[in-house]
Automatic annotation (TrEMBL):
Lineage: Bacteria, Bacillati, Cyanobacteriota, Cyanophyceae, Oculatellales
Transmembrane segments: 16-36, 48-72, 84-107, 119-137, 149-169, 238-257, 269-289, 301-322
Keyword Transmembrane: yes
Keywords noted in UniProt: Membrane, Transmembrane, Transmembrane helix
The organism's place on the tree of life at top rank: Bacteria
Protein name (record): Uncharacterized protein
Amino acid sequence: MSKSSTPTSARDSSTPLLVGACIAWGVATLLFFLLFTAPGEDGAQPDWFLTGINLLEIGAFFFAALLCFRNWRSSQIVSGRNVWFWIGLGLLFYAMGTVLFFIWGTVWGLDPAVSLGDFFYIFSYIFLAAGMFKAVLPRRLNLELPQWMMVVGIGLGGVLLAIFVNIAAAEAIAVPLGQVPAMHHLAQAPPDIAPAPALEAAPAEAPALEVEEEASSAPPLILQIDGMLEPLVDAVGLLYLIGDIVLLVIAGTLLVAFWGGRYSQSWKLIAIAAFCLYIADMFFAYAINTDTYVEGSLWEVFWTFSAVFFGLGAVVEHAVSVNSRRSPRRRRG
């Protein structure tokens, strides 16, 4: 028996463990969302629930980044080491952005239009797109017309969905949902009843808002930075939209370019990860534009699913690459 069989068998045994860990992380996150959600009367989730879902998301992205960096350090990766370096760096920046948002929102109680976490997210999109593009670039994309139409269709679908989300959000703001039942009750009321008391009670909400603003424990420097970044809200929103569409197009190209063959499974998982990220971002964009976002909504699980699929893709790519580079010689007894 050759001496090289021991490390090879160790690699083979680690693959199912890592795959199982990724799947278990995704299932545990989904169960946490479903079983422990406890919204209050105002729809807000308790702090312990928000802490739990943030830790699950941050842990998933950090773990996926480590798996990508493991591929980067391996000389046997078929798709190229730099590919996984950029993807791992993007996942790491995404995790750091989530850490900053957790500190801003849950620890300090802030809700700025733009914060430092947004810039980590934007750079994560750039790094992820660079890594995925490097995976497609070396391949000869001799695609047929139906395949190119599929890629173009995915891109156009992403653009149209983003436009639809923005239009639907604008209509929801122009006609608030709570306004329709109020007008219905007003039409059924007798003409001699005046709605004046409701107008007098409206200013009572202002002191509560002032108390919430004063309750923040953030350092003054952080408040100054948030104020300086606030004018960039439109530019940041546009960069998010461009990043989502670019990732969606590259993910569709990955599905077409790596559809068949031995090395296609890992890139199918990477494409699914990009789709999960896009789905969660579209839900988030709609909620933010309609001012109905409540942290801890069920759709946020897609962010964690994205990290899980990135991690699964890295594990599968490592296993396939190692097995393909294995010596074909038979072991001697």
